[in-house]
Amino acid sequence: MLQPPIGALVTKTESRFGLVILSSRRARQINAYFHELGAGVGGYVPPQVHSLSRKPLTIALEEIYEDKVVVAPIEE
Fold first, then answer.
1. CA separation (Å) from 7 to 2, 3, 53, 72?
2. What are φ and ψ of residue 31, in 5° steps?
3. Which one, of 52, 45, 51, 43, lies nearest residue 69 by Cα?
4. DSSP 73
5. What's the rounded Cα separation, in Å, for the pair 61 and 26?
6. Where in the chain are the domains?
7. Does the pLDDT at position 2 exceed 80?
8. How far apart are CA 9 and CA 16, in angstroms?
9. Measured distance CA(62)–CA(49) in Å, rounded
10. DSSP H helical ranges for the chain
11. 37-76 pLDDT, tens per residue?
12. Structure confidence by residue, pLDDT tens digits, 8-21
């Protein structure tokens, strides 16, 4: 069983495509944050949830589920 459930995640992003884009971008940011830790650069936001997982994509999905990361519509 996947936690958080995909059905609940899709309702937060309005589409599966939006979920894929948002989660992949946030997972890349989390991965870059973990790679920068030793350098002391601090250019990325750390994970916003406490997770037992060490995988950036799972952490990103948990952030989306807890509304720590949201989709901001582009204004024209």
1. 11, 11, 20, 20
2. -60, -45
3. 45
4. P
5. 9
6. 6-65
7. no
8. 9
9. 7
10. 6-13, 16-36, 56-65
11. 766 667 788 888 888 888 999 999 999 999 998 877 778 7
12. 999 988 889 989 99
Instruction: Give 1's pLDDT tier (boundaries 50, 70, 90).
Output: very low
Please give the structure tokens belonging to residue 74: 């582009």
Cα–Cα distance for residue pair 22/30, rounded to 1 Å: 12
Question: Is the pLDDT assigned to residue 23 strictly greater than 70?
Answer: yes
Instruction: Name the token pair of 13.
Output: 């992003």
Report CA-CA distances (Å) from 18 to 9, 37, 65, 75.
10, 29, 14, 17
Orientation angle between helical segments 56-65 and 6-13, nearest 10 degrees: 70
Amino acid at 34: F
The amino acid at 1: M
Q: Look up residue 50 and give its two tokens.
A: 């406490």
